[in-house]
Each structure stands twice: as structure tokens, then as C-alpha cells.
């Protein structure tokens, strides 16, 4: 497929449809869920009714030909509220973990169960990598997977897991041989109703408060052999080649985060755009010293920079989303670039938006302070800004003579 960032007619219509949903169903209830920190089940239910819930599943199955549909839908929904969007799309991370490490048969078995329970109601998925002592340093995971008769026993504690404990299907990365770092790790599906897996402490957060974040505790959690993603032969070969130093394969965690970065960037963009639009309109109306504040260059130039930075981030996000779908490898760390830029733009733009609103930007009667709180997570989860710079710098160092 030739490189193009032009949206098709169908994508423009999808963008409009997602925006209308966001404006009608998400933005009006955003403050309420931000305050209560409750999981927004009614909104997720509405998203399901219109076909937005599980959209990433269909897109992964080939419905999104250019990769851009997922990006534009993500941006439109986070324009309404990032926390609620993460409740609608949080399962996508587990889905990407399954797609990244599982066989096509495993994907076909488990992916539908992440979105729908047997009784037809909504199901959720969660992807558990992070632990108290291992966040950026994924190679130091301590959750153990031990081979036993007919399957594997999982033991350990995961922290900060989106949908952790309330998910129906958990995808868990555990270490089989800790001496091999991430090459000694394997990814497991923990099916619905499995004993030995439980949600722990639910975190209270600065932002994205409608999204459920909690510990996941695994205590002699038995999963059958078929839950080892990729199968035992592949794991054995991976570990053997790691021992002989010939393996170049990335861990399930690393390849999953690489695949989801452009979409995480797209979410950050939605927050930035919301703050930009709101502060632009405010600046046109707010009168100070007898004229609208936008007529001061000090304010207008801020808005100019905000518009430019959002565009710049969107180009990187759409390029990476297109590359991901077309199967073009991120040789210059294009996925990391997109997530890093979009996350930092969201923080900067929401900060400037508060400044443009003055005191009104700082109080809860206006939405801008929430957008600023929501934006910060995009510099932390799925690889912090420092880790993205590490990935980019390695690509830079590997290029040239
Ligand atoms: C709301 C929320 C939702 C999350 N959802 C999930 C989820 O669904 N699944 C999941 O597995 N995890 C999830 N996480 C975890 C998240 O991915 C980690 O918090 C993140 O990767 C950072 O790890 P850490 O918190 O342990 O920080 P650390 O790794 O301890 O990092 C602390 C600081 O040190 C810096 N640092 C670390 N190493 C280096 C280095 N080599 N060079 C330069 N700087 C470095 C970091 O950039 C950071 O600034 C979530 C976290 C939050 C807050």
C-alpha cells in the first residue's frame, strides 16, 4: 500500500460519527466520573450499542486498511474524556498483547472473550506487566511461571494494571527463567473465572480517574498449557537461542507496547485538541483592557504554537499508525517518536490552556484543569518519555556510519 495520510470518505464519516458520540455521551458526564472515580459502565454500554466497543478487535482483524481509523477514533473519544475512553479502549492493550505473542488460533479463541461474556454482557481485558520493582525495566519481572502437570502456576503481584481485577481475561507476562531477563519471560492468558487471580488495591489517581487501575495478585494461579501464548516449543527455542546469544526476539511486553504506541499518542492528541479549542474560543470572548485577550500577541502566539504542535504530533501519530498497519518496521523508532511527541504536546498545550483562561483555568467549573491532569499519564504509561528517548537514541546511534 502506498504511503498516504489522506483520510478516505469512509474515514471522514467515521471521524464525524465518533466525534458526535464523544460530544453527546462522553463529554457531558466526564466531570461526574472524574469526581467519583467509578468505572463508567453506562457509557461503555452505549459505546457497545453503537459499535465502538471492541472496535480495535475488528480493526485488528483487517477492517482498518490504512491504520488511521483507530487513530482518528481514539482522538475523537479522548476529546470527550481520556479516562472514559480508556474504559472503552483499555481492553485493546490486552488484545495487542494477545496478538503480539499468541498464535492465530489463540487469538481466535481468546479475543472475543475479552469483549463479551458467555451471557452476552460486556467483558473486559487487562494486560499485566508492571510490578512494584519493575516498571520501565521490564527485564526485572519477578512474577514466576512454573511448569507443572498440564499447565503453569503463576505467582506474583502486578501493579497499576488498567482493568486489573475487574477484567474477565487477564494477559500476564511472567518470568520462566529470571537469569535470561526479558528473553526468559512468557505471556499467559488467564481465562475468566480462574481461581488464584484477584484484584488488589484500586489506585486513586491525578487524572484519567474514570479508568480502573489496580493491583493484580496471582497466588498459585493455574493455567492450562494452551494458555501459554505462542506455545511451549516457541518458548523453549526462544530461551535456548537466548542462552547461546543468538536471539533477537523482543519480549511480549516490549513488542506489545511498540504496537500500541501510536494509538496512545492519538489519545493524547484528543486531550490537547480539546484544550486548544476551548482556550482559543475563550480567548476570543474574554475581554481584558477593553479588547479580547486573543488580540494580544502574547496570547495569540501561544495559540499559534499550540496549533502547530498538535499538527506536528498528529503527523507523527498518523505516520506511525500507517506504518504499523502496513507492516513497515519502526527502524527509526517512529512509534516511540509519535507517543513521546503527542504526550509532551498534550501536557504543554493543556498547561498553556490553563494560562490562557487565567483563574478560570485553575478551577473545576471549567474543564481545562482536568485535561491537564489527564494529560500527564501520557508521559508515563506504556513507556515513560525517558524510555521513548532511550529507544529513539538507540535508533539514532544505530543509523549512519
Ligand atoms: C494509570 C496507569 C495505568 C497503567 N496501566 C498499566 C497496564 O495496564 N499494564 C501494565 O503493565 N502497566 C501499566 N501501568 C504501569 C506503567 O506502564 C509504568 O508505571 C511505567 O512503565 C513506569 O514504570 P514505573 O512506574 O515503575 O517507573 P520507573 O520505571 O521506576 O521509572 C521512574 C523514573 O525513572 C525513569 N527511568 C527509569 N529507567 C530509566 C532509564 N534507563 N533512563 C532514563 N530514565 C529512566 C523513568 O522514565 C521515570 O521517570 C500503568 C500506570 C499507570 C499510572
Molecular structure report:
This protein starts with 8 loop residues before the first helix and ends with a helix. β8 and β9 form a beta hairpin. The strands form three sheets. A four-stranded antiparallel sheet has the order 2-3-7-6, with no helix packed on it. It has a three-stranded mixed sheet with strand order 1-4-5. It has a two-stranded antiparallel ribbon with strand order 8-9. It folds into three domains: 9-99, Acyl-CoA dehydrogenase/oxidase, N-terminal domain (Butyryl-Coa Dehydrogenase, subunit A, domain 1, Orthogonal Bundle), CATH 1.10.540.10; 123-243, Butyryl-CoA Dehydrogenase, subunit A, domain 2 (Beta Barrel); 252-398, Butyryl-CoA Dehydrogenase, subunit A, domain 3 (Up-down Bundle), CATH 1.20.140.10. With 401 residues, the chain is α+β, with helices and mostly antiparallel strands. The protein has 15 helices and nine strands. The radius of gyration is 21 Å and the shape is globular. Helix content is 53%, strand content 14%. Flavin-adenine dinucleotide is lined by residues 93, 127-130, 135-137, 160-162, 205, 208, 213, 377, 380-382, 384, 386-387, 390.
Fourth-tier CATH superfamily name of the largest domain: Butyryl-CoA Dehydrogenase, subunit A, domain 3
Question: For the largest beta sheet, what order do the strands appear in spatially?
Answer: 2-3-7-6
For the record, the CATH architecture of the largest domain stands as Up-down Bundle
Output mean pLDDT.
94
End-to-end CA span: 30 Å
Ligands (ions, cofactors included): flavin-adenine dinucleotide
Largest sheet: 4 strands, antiparallel
- Percent of residues in beta strands? 5-15%
Q: Cα-atom Rg, whole angstroms?
A: 21 Å
| Structure annotation, total helices | 15
The helix/strand series, from N terminus to C terminus, equals HHHHHHHHEEEEEEEHHEEHHHHH
Tally of separate domains: 3
Per the principal axes of the C-alpha atoms, what is the gross shape? globular
Helix-strand category = alpha+beta
Amino acid at each position: 500500500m502506498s504511503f498516504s495520510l489522506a483520510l478516505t470518505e469512509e474515514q471522514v464519516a467515521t471521524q464525524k460519527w465518533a466525534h458526535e458520540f464523544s460530544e453527546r455521551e462522553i463529554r457531558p458526564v466526564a466531570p461526574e466520573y472524574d469526581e467519583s472515580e467509578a468505572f463508567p459502565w453506562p457509557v461503555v454500554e452505549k459505546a457497545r450499542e453503537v459499535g465502538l466497543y471492541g472496535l480495535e478487535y475488528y480493526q485488528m482483524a483487517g477492517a482498518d486498511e490504512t491504520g488511521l481509523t483507530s487513530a482518528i477514533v481514539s482522538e475523537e473519544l479522548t476529546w470527550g474524556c481520556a479516562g472514559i475512553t480508556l474504559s472503552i479502549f483499555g481492553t485493546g492493550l490486552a488484545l495487542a498483547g494477545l496478538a503480539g505473542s499468541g498464535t492465530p488460533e489463540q487469538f481466535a479463541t481468546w479475543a472475543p472473550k475479552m469483549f463479551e461474556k458467555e451471557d452476552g454482557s460486556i467483558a473486559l481485558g487487562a494486560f499485566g506487566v508492571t510490578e512494584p520493582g519493575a516498571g520501565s525495566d521490564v527485564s526485572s519481572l519477578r512474577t514466576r511461571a512454573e511448569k507443572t502437570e498440564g499447565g503453569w502456576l503463576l505467582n506474583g503481584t502486578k501493579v497499576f494494571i488498567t482493568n486489573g481485577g475487574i477484567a474477565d481475561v487477564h494477559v500476564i507476562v511472567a518470568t520462566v527463567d529470571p537469569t535470561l531477563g526479558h528473553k526468559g519471560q512468557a505471556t499467559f492468558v488467564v481465562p475468566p473465572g480462574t481461581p488464584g487471580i484477584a484484584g488488589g488495591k484500586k489506585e486513586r489517581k491525578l487524572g484519567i480517574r474514570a479508568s480502573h487501575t489496580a493491583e493484580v495478585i496471582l497466588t498459585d494461579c493455574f493455567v492450562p498449557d494452551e494458555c501459554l501464548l505462542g506455545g511451549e516449543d516457541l518458548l523453549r527455542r526462544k530461551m535456548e537461542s537466548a542462552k547461546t546469544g543468538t536471539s533477537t526476539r523482543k519480549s511480549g511486553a516490549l513488542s506489545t507496547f511498540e504496537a500500541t504506541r501510536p494509538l496512545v499518542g492519538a489519545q493524547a492528541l484528543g486531550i490537547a485538541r480539546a484544550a486548544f479549542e476551548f482556550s482559543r474560543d475563550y480567548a476570543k470572548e474574554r475581554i481584558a483592557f477593553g479588547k479580547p485577550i486573543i488580540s494580544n500577541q502574547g496570547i495569540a502566539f501561544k495559540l499559534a504554537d499550540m496549533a502547530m504542535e498538535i499538527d506536528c504530533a498528529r503527523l507523527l501519530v498518523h505516520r506511525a499508525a500507517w506504518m504499523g498497519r502496513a507492516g513497515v518496521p519502526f527502524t527509526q523508532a517512529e512509534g516511540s517518536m509519535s507517543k513521546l511527541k503527542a504526550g509532551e504536546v498534550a501536557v504543554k498545550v493543556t498547561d498553556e490552556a490553563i494560562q490562557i483562561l487565567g483563574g478560570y483555568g485553575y478551577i473545576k467549573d471549567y474543564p481545562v484543569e482536568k485535561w491537564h491532569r489527564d494529560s500527564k499519564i501520557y508521559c508515563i504509561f506504556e513507556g515513560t518519555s525517558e524510555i521513548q528517548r532511550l529507544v529513539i537514541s538507540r535508533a539514532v546511534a544505530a543509523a549512519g556510519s
